[in-house]
């Protein structure tokens, strides 16, 4: 694909959490939360990152934004390496990448007012104009995210979950970012509120040209908002492609199992649809299986899977899949 | 969709401690808080205004009126409410002067110990690693000494003065503050809102100032209230042993020590400042307990 330089480019990212011994705190092993993740994100697009709990999708987000240290690999933002940048430069880069957190109840400091919360980025970064103009700017932002601009002296607990998430969005927008990472940004919300917040995110993307890395486990939400989708399993991306490719022609057995689990509104209209139920649990990321990490639960697993790690490459159709036996199973995906 | 809302409510319920104090303060000011508060307020007023009304002169003597029992009259007909001591000094004046010294020492000690403790607690809790290991081992070692023994040792070395007493008691009192602060910092620093502040590019100092310290105020205030009683008591003990405040600024401990040879003949010289001391210490104890239950029910066992 010959296109412009991607806004965000993640290259073979590894993030490992050390396991330390009880007494001497010596390192005795590591949990490979992220084990070799690579993807590109074009400006103005939305990449949906999906996977079950423990697949490492949140760790990818936290590593990109600098809350976790990468063990190896690169995170390039507009071609600049985050890790290689100096302290001052990193702080400036951070303005361009903001994050919306999962839980609107714990991600806002309960002791600060909305005005303080939204303008917090301006307090910690230089170059946001004189303090005197902040209140007016906060009010504009609150209006932009659909909150009453007169509520700027209230505390977070005086708002509902959806309203709090809007405060979180206003906080991120205050930095005029280019990329916003939404880490399960709507998972904690009511379904009706989810729709409102997603519509808000889409409006903002259209108006401000934002780029989203949208992390979720709810596939219908991801399908609604994403341009491209990457599916993660146990610290690796197993399938990556455009939304329609991944949803309509999934080639990795894990993606197929995930998609078959989406409830459909009129099941009798698709009698051929089968539910693929995976056996067993996700293996421990402290001791992942050899070869293909999915092989312990894969219905198609053969000897080759235990030996050879399947690369994420275009195997069938137009999108990348990390399965030696990639094949389209027509009966799994629900048609919208 | 009420199911979803209920789920969010139950998820939010354990977060009650995250609600700001100023919002919760509206409920639960029971008698366990206001009665000791009134007593303490009375002592504070007596300490501030008492010596202005009944002046105390440490070198004045009035041997004609020595060892008068409480509620008796001097030659000139004036009432001595608390009696007089062996040189004829008014015990009421001495006790109020003593309240001034004791409470001043108590508050100054807590401010100093609190400052040291909070700094140590934040450094070791927030930055962790070797700083945490070193500071907490120092605290552990200090805790193995009985506090009063350490205080006596230092007092014997650096000598007598009000300032030295404050220093000595602060040195033996900072550990509690450091441990409580560290615990609170550890509980707060992994909160999601701290991460959310960090992603804005905030410095550690900004995070400590806006996220960490505000979360520490309530437990620190509780510890301070619980501690001030024992600090005042420790000061009295030091003074009683002759290692505390000098005779020119008599605290309760000095007055109590003065009367110990007269216990069989003139009980009031030691007993009255002793009772004053006991009431104040007990009041602070009850107040601290009540405040702890009020602000931090989780700490009940401590």
From TrEMBL, chain A:
SMART domains: AAA. One of its GO terms (molecular function) is ATP binding. It holds the Pfam family oligo_HPY. Keywords: ATP-binding, Nucleotide-binding, Transport. SUPFAM superfamilies: P-loop containing nucleoside triphosphate hydrolases. Residues 19-259 form the ABC transporter domain. Belongs to the ABC transporter superfamily. PANTHER family: D,D-DIPEPTIDE TRANSPORT ATP-BINDING PROTEIN DDPF-RELATED (PTHR43776:SF7), TRANSPORT ATP-BINDING PROTEIN (PTHR43776). This is ATP-binding cassette domain-containing protein.
UniProtKB/TrEMBL annotation, chain B:
Keywords: Cell membrane, Membrane, Transmembrane, Transmembrane helix, Transport. PROSITE patterns: ABC_TM1. It comes from the Bacteria. Residues 99-288 form the ABC transmembrane type-1 domain. It holds the Pfam family OppC_N. It is found in: Cell membrane. The chain crosses the membrane at residues 33-54, 101-127, 148-175, 267-291. The keyword Cell wall biogenesis/degradation does not apply. The keyword Metal-binding does not apply. InterPro entries: BP-dependent_transpt_permease, MetI-like, MetI-like_sf, OppC_N. It is a multi-pass membrane protein. PANTHER family: D,D-DIPEPTIDE TRANSPORT SYSTEM PERMEASE PROTEIN DDPC-RELATED, OLIGOPEPTIDE TRANSPORT SYSTEM PERMEASE PROTEIN APPC. Belongs to the binding-protein-dependent transport system permease family. This is ABC transporter permease. It comes from Occultella gossypii.
């Amino acid at each position: 694909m010959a296109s412009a330089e991607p806004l965000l480019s993640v290259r073979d990212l590894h993030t490992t959490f050390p396991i330390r011994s009880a007494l001497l705190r010596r390192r005795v092993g590591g949990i490979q939360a992220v084990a070799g993740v690579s993807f590109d994100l074009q400006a103005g697009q939305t990449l949906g990152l999906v996977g079950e709990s423990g697949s490492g999708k949140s760790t990818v987000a936290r590593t990109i934004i600098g809350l976790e240290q990468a063990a190896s690999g690169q995170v390039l933002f507009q071609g600049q390496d985050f890790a290689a940048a100096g302290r001052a430069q990193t702080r400036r880069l951070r303005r361009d990448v903001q994050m919306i957190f999962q839980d609107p109840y714990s991600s806002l400091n309960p002791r600060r007012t909305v005005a303080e919360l939204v303008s917090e980025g301006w307090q910690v970064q230089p170059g946001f104009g004189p303090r005197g103009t902040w209140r007016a700017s906060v009010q504009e932002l609150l209006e932009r995210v659909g909150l009453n601009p007169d509520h700027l002296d209230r505390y977070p607990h005086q708002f509902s979950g959806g309203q709090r998430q809007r405060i979180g969005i206003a906080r991120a927008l205050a930095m005029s970012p280019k990329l916003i990472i939404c880490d399960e940004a709507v998972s904690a919300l009511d379904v009706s509120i989810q729709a409102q917040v997603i519509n808000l995110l889409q409006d903002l993307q259209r108006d401000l040209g934002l780029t989203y890395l949208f992390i979720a486990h709810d596939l219908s939400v991801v399908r609604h908002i994403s341009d491209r989708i990457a599916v993660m399993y146990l610290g690796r991306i197993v399938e990556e492609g455009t939304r329609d490719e991944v949803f309509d022609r999934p080639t990795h057995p894990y993606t197929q199992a995930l998609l078959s689990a989406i409830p459909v509104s009129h099941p009798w209209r698709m009698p051929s649809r089968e539910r693929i139920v995976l056996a067993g649990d996700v293996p421990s990321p402290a001791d992942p299986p050899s070869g293909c990490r999915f092989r312990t639960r894969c219905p198609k697993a053969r000897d080759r899977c235990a030996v050879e790690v399947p690369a994420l490459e275009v195997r069938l159709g137009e999108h990348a899949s990390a399965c030696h036996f990639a094949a389209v199973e027509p009966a799994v995906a629900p048609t919208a | 969709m009420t199911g979803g809302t209920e789920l969010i409510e139950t998820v939010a319920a354990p977060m009650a401690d995250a609600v700001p104090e100023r919002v919760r303060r509206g409920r639960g000011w029971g008698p366990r808080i206001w009665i000791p508060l009134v007593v303490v307020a009375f002592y504070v007023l007596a300490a501030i205004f008492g010596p202005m009304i009944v002046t105390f002169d440490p070198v004045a003597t009035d041997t004609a009126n020595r060892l008068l029992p409480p509620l008796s009259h001097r030659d000139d007909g004036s009432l001595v409410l608390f009696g007089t001591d062996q040189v004829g000094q008014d015990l009421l004046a001495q006790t109020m002067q003593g309240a001034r010294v004791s409470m001043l020492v108590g508050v100054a000690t807590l401010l100093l110990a609190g400052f040291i403790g909070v700094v140590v607690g934040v450094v070791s809790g927030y930055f962790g690693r070797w700083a945490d290991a070193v500071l907490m081992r120092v605290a552990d070692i200090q805790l193995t000494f009985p506090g009063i023994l350490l205080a006596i040792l230092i007092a014997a070395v650096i000598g007598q003065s009000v300032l030295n007493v404050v220093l000595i008691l602060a040195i033996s009192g900072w550990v509690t503050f450091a441990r409580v602060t560290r615990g609170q910092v550890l509980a707060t620093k992994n909160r999601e809102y701290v991460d959310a502040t960090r992603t804005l590019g905030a410095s550690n100092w900004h995070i400590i100032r806006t996220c960490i310290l505000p979360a520490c105020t309530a437990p620190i205030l509780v510890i301070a209230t619980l501690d001030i009683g024992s600090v005042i008591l420790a000061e009295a003990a030091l003074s009683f042993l002759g290692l505390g405040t000098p005779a020119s600024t008599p605290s309760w401990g000095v007055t109590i020590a003065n009367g110990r040879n007269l216990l069989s003949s003139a009980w009031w010289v030691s007993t009255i400042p002793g009772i004053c001391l006991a009431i104040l210490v007990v009041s602070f104890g009850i107040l601290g307990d009540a405040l702890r239950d009020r602000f931090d029910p989780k700490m009940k066992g401590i």
